[in-house]
Design brief:
The complex is a heterodimer of chains A (259) and B (232). Chain A has 259 residues and is α/β, with parallel strands linked by helices. Chain A is 38% helix and 24% strand. Chain A has ten helices and ten strands. Chain A is globular, with a radius of gyration of 18 Å. The chains are: A alpha/beta (259), B alpha/beta (232). At the A-B interface, α7, α9 and α10 of A face β1 and α2 of B.
């Protein structure tokens, strides 16, 4: 039964940079439709872990398994380069902290969304454009901007465009690195609403790395708290935020205003 | 007698404040509680004695050091104190509803959508859920012009009623009510009393902290203290 297999399973994942620890002995299960938050301060290993889980970094040791659409489970770290690229194109999406890392500057907003579809074989121009327009609507970007360059967009609009570009191909798992970092609060709320709606409606799973505990409260079902490359605490989001056990988590939670 | 919906046994919860020199705050020391379907048990202790802590522990929001919290769930039994995150989420989706005094929602999400979320999570189609949501908001006297707005900017009383709507919209077999009538006027309190009685009639097992004596006396079938004494 597919429902009893996690979408993503990581075991003992470590990434060492010489003597320096990126992350150490991290294990996690992510289930379909679930949003997992990874929190911790800068340098705690969040982004390194995200890189290892999404095949962009090769861990020093450990395993990462992913369940394909047909139910077979593949070892992400053993996949060939082309197979990994295909997986990244079809089943995964990555939303970068800096939208410029996820967008192509040389093409229009519409093409940014459309070219991910074309990479999966879509060829009908009218349909691609219609889909791009539909996604601009979903992320609340004015349709009239479809032929504009992303660099003419505000950073909040660029971030929403990046999300549209990532989600247009209906990935099953989205990795987000500080998706609301650097955005002003009204835009942040709009993005939270958008991501929450998409995970609920499309059954999308997501791993969200953030230092913003309030964001995790509203988006994530579960939390991992990282410090010095290790997971020091995990649990349901409200358990970790309302009843933190580890001294570091308590410090983290007590240091912010109303998470 | 029917099987209990909820059995709490030997529950201990101590908070350790690492950021404050490791102070230990023992709050629950061996709490026992059994609640059957159709019962509404009022927790009678003074404020600060752990009523909210117990309710939160039953909801698995707080993690106890020892003891068991066994709930009847999906035809079986689940110990909330030992269950994994997926099981806990399933219990919250289908078995336990929780009404607190605080509303935490994503800004910009319309009130009606906030209210029907538990039904949607339960798997009810959107249209049917909306119908139920509208009826409940009407019953709770939230003016229709507010339904499409986010409750973030609502008054305390309105937010409390949105909370109540979220808690009562699905027919949860177990309901935990933490001061459900706080910040409500007398008309609002009367509606809460009605909602709780209706829930009892359909067989819900209810545990609550009601500082409002009038509400408590109107809804409780039994009053207990955390030390297990039956109170008047």
């Amino acid at each position: 039964m597919a429902a009893d297999v996690p979408l993503l399973r990581a075991r003992d994942v470590s990434k060492l940079y010489g003597a320096r620890v990126g992350c150490r002995d991290v294990g996690l299960d992510l289930w379909p439709g679930e949003v997992l938050g990874i929190v911790g301060e800068s340098g705690s290993g969040k982004t390194t872990l995200l890189g290892c889980l999404s095949g962009r970094l090769v861990p020093t040791s450990g395993s990462v398994e992913f369940m394909l659409r047909d139910g077979t489970v593949v070892d992400v770290l053993q996949l060939s380069e082309p197979a990994l690229r295909k997986l990244a194109r079809t089943d995964w999406g990555v939303v970068h902290q800096n939208p410029r890392d996820g967008l192509r500057a040389g093409v229009t907003a519409g093409a940014n969304v459309g070219e991910r579809l074309m990479a999966l074989g879509a060829r009908h121009y009218g349909r691609i454009r219609a889909e791009a327009l539909d996604w601009l609507d979903r992320v609340e970007i004015d349709r009239g901007r479809i032929d504009d360059w992303p660099e003419t967009f505000s950073s909040g609009m660029q971030q929403r465009l990046q999300i549209a570009r990532t989600l247009v191909t209906r990935p099953r798992l989205v990795f987000m690195d500080e998706p609301t970092g650097g955005l002003d609060v009204s835009v942040q709320a709009r993005l939270l609403d958008l991501v929450r709606g998409l995970t609920a409606d499309l059954g999308l799973s997501a791993i969200i790395v953030t230092h913003d505990l309030a964001v995790t409260r509203l988006l994530a079902h579960r939390l991992l708290v990282m410090r010095g490359g290790e997971v020091v605490e995990s649990g349901l989001t409200d358990q970790v935020l309302d009843d933190p056990q580890h001294p570091y988590t308590q410090l983290l939670v007590s240091s912010v205003l109303q998470p | 007698m029917t099987e209990p919906a909820l059995v709490v046994e030997g529950l201990h919860k101590t908070f350790t404040l690492h950021t404050q020199g490791g102070i230990q705050l023992p709050v629950l020391r061996g709490v026992d509680l059994t609640v059957h379907p159709g019962e509404c048990v009022a927790l009678m202790d003074p404020s600060g004695s752990g009523k909210s802590t117990l309710l939160r522990a039953i909801y698995a929001n707080y993690r106890p050091q020892c003891g068991r919290i066994v709930v009847a769930h999906d035809g079986g039994r689940m110990d909330m104190a030992g269950a994994g995150p997926r099981e806990l989420l399933a219990v919250r989706r289908r078995t336990i509803g929780y009404v607190s005094q605080f509303l935490r929602v994503i800004p910009r999400v319309p009130t009606l959508d906030v209210v029907i979320e538990p039904l949607r999570a339960f798997g009810m189609p959107r249209e049917a859920a909306l119908e139920r949501g509208r009826a409940l908001l009407e019953r709770l006297r939230i003016p229709e012009r507010l339904w499409s707005l986010s409750p973030v900017t609502f008054s305390g009383g309105e937010q409390q009623r949105v909370n109540l709507a979220r808690g009562f919209i699905a027919d949860f077999p177990i309901l935990l009510l933490d001061e459900p009538s706080a910040s409500l006027d007398s008309a609002g309190r009367a509606i809460v009393v009605e909602l709780i009685r209706d829930a009892r009639k359909r067989g819900a097992a209810i545990v609550g902290a009601f500082h409002d004596r009038e509400v408590r006396e109107a809804v409780a079938t039994r009053a207990v203290t955390l030390h297990g004494e039956e109170a008047a």
